[in-house]
Prior knowledge:
The structure is a single chain. By secondary structure, the protein is of the alpha+beta class. 52% of the residues lie in helices and 15% in strands. It has seven helices and eight strands. The protein has helices spanning 9-21, 23-29, 31-35, 40-55, 66-74, 143-150, 154-201, and strands at residues 77-81, 86-87, 92-97, 100-102, 105-107, 112-113, 130-132, 136-141. The strands form two sheets. A four-stranded antiparallel beta sheet has the order 1-8-3-6. A four-stranded antiparallel beta sheet has the order 2-7-4-5, with no helix packed on it. A hairpin with a 2-residue loop joins strand 4 (100-102) and strand 5. The model has no long low-confidence stretch (mean pLDDT 85).
Amino acid sequence: MYRRMQMPGALRIRAREYLRNTRELYKKSSYNALITELSPDLRADIVLHMSAKTLEQVWYLGSLEQNARVELALRLARVGYAPREKVPAIGLNILMRGVCAKAGNILTVSDHWGEDMIVSSQALRDMRHASALTYVEVGTISREDIEEVLVTFPTSERSIRQSAMKIAMQRAIVVVSEFLKMSRTATGATSVSLVQKRLDRK
């Protein structure tokens, strides 16, 4: 393909390195097709064994009903990123391999970001992306995935709604605090400017 598309050598090297480093990712992704062929109980046991610890890294997912966690685990998409690529925070991301950086913090295996996706208002969400420092594997779940799964699990849906309210309240307090701080700074700067003008007139 590289030869027929006349790709430059540097781009060929990058593509080969990516495929080598994400080989395990595609192997694991193929497991879902096999798991869906199993009986419901056996599928639940295997999925929980494979993904329960991963989901439990996110504080509000660990308290969901078991079957709800099974359905979410089946929707956990695995995505690979090369070094220096940006990993968006649109959905929930759980770092499963490699090292990332976000907002000045180093993220390693089991760290996560985008957990505030359950909050409706984007103004109260941290939409800053993470940057891959190495080849990374990320497990991601979208807001739509959670909403579709929780339709049949009202108890878990209430739990998620309460968690969303908790996150929203915490973020709102931070936003208001920062706004007041900026207002005081602006007011102080205006006062200093007025004093300086009066001194200049004298």
